[in-house]
């Protein structure tokens, strides 16, 4: 017979005292329950002792959890930190929409991080808090992201810019040496973990003597720059960061044809552009980016429009087509400050609505959302169910004033996903 008691005093608990009285009936009852505990113990030991089982479990966990689990034991540390596991985890989770945790938003000369999964309106954390001490006193001059890696340019007082590749999840970094002869216009990351462990940096630089744009590609695997024979005479074409999709970096233009450079052979590829509206000399493109393996574009044809189309490029590069139609007129009832004619009459101001589409997000379940910057707020709009969720407050003193409030301009958002990828 088994008996005992446990007495607690505040936070202290006295040990349990057991009294065992032998009898046949009690021994039979005790033996009846022992296999349950032994089976659980045996299963735990099997899992803990099997590297294959542990690997399958760990591959289904997010990177930040795995980094914490490295502290559990030497065995777990050895497994999770191994190059084989990290490569396997990066490839397995390369297309997981669940890994998208937020966006970096530009506020020159600073950049802020906005979490997408917080249940409350959050204060945006500074990107400086996520970078290592390599920044020093330099300011962030440029940023480009791709599948969890970040290319950051630091400008010093002498106007020199140094470029680093960061994995903010693991805290690792790598310096990218740029030849002094290359006057950098933009640095663009190209990283597809499903294809390779290596990433590439596509540099668009200005040849001053020839007054044209040149293209060069840096490989993390070889550490060598390859220079393309291609060039572009439209020196303002690549002023915006490029978007990596299907092995190529893509650039849009408000006035010229779009551009596409294949990373593997440094050769241009034909790419369709959208039409410039009749009576206008430019496109009013609000968003250009990749989401869930597809390339999207948002263009507002007239400044007075509060509705727009989300275009998607066909995988064969044949044409752009309308994927979604979005009408944000209902937002003016929720946020009257976005209606500019409340401050200035329409005849005195050509932009009656104050909003920017910062980011378009879709996932494997075809859930589509648009991240929108309004004066004083950042909200996310779910296209399918029409729900609006506030993500952050923007204080006017933090940004330039814009008709009674503050907001981010277009092309200020860079998606961030968690990854264990090497840099």
From TrEMBL:
Pfam families: F-box, FBA_1
InterPro entries: At3g26010-like (IPR055290), F-box-assoc_dom_typ1 (IPR006527), F-box-assoc_interact_dom (IPR017451), F-box-like_dom_sf (IPR036047), F-box_dom (IPR001810)
Residue span(s) of domain F-box: 49-89
NCBIfam families: F_box_assoc_1 (TIGR01640)
Stated name of the protein: F-box protein At5g07610-like
Source organism (scientific name): Solanum pennellii
